[in-house]
Amino acid sequence: MKRFKPLKLSFFEHTGRILRHWFTPSWRLKNLLSHDQLEAIAQHIEASETQHTAEIAIALETRLPWSYLARQAHSRERAWAAFSKMQVWDTPDNNGVLMYFLLAERRIEIVADRACAQVIDEAQWKAWVHTLHTAMHNNDLVSGIKEVVTELTLVLEKHFPQLETNQENRVSNRPQVF
């Protein structure tokens, strides 16, 4: 597990963060993506994974658990925890990718396993996060996710092509809600 330094927030910033998380209702996730939209994303990821050996996963969370808030943990730490919990790292080629959305802070983190992190440069990851932020701001997260998955697929099939026709799907393609 990666080690992260805690955020250095003042008392007022820390209190504001706690209140923002506390007052972010869990039903906001249902307003963000409907059941049909979640299924459309899952189908798009499933189609993508027929082209390469990588695993693509999506995690959505309304707010951080109290243990993360109390120790001023960064959202990236929670994204890595979701990456581990969902076992996105469990691929033979070490090429899993997780898109993590934290609604209370409007944070988007993309976490990639070692092999993916080596073949895709930091500027590209930042561009994809920007695409997702723009889509979320425009209330069209589904098309933003599909766009990023499509672009990611092009890169992954170049570096990790699918050679077997019956590759095992190790991670659920349906976005996970924490």
TrEMBL record:
InterPro entries (UniProt xref): TPM_dom
Domain TPM, chain residue ranges per copy: 30-152
Pfam families: TPM_phosphatase (PF04536)
Gene3D superfamilies the UniProt entry points to: 3.10.310.50
UniProt-listed PANTHER family: BLL7265 PROTEIN, UPF0603 PROTEIN YGCG
Name assigned to this protein: TPM domain-containing protein
Organism: Ephemeroptericola cinctiostellae
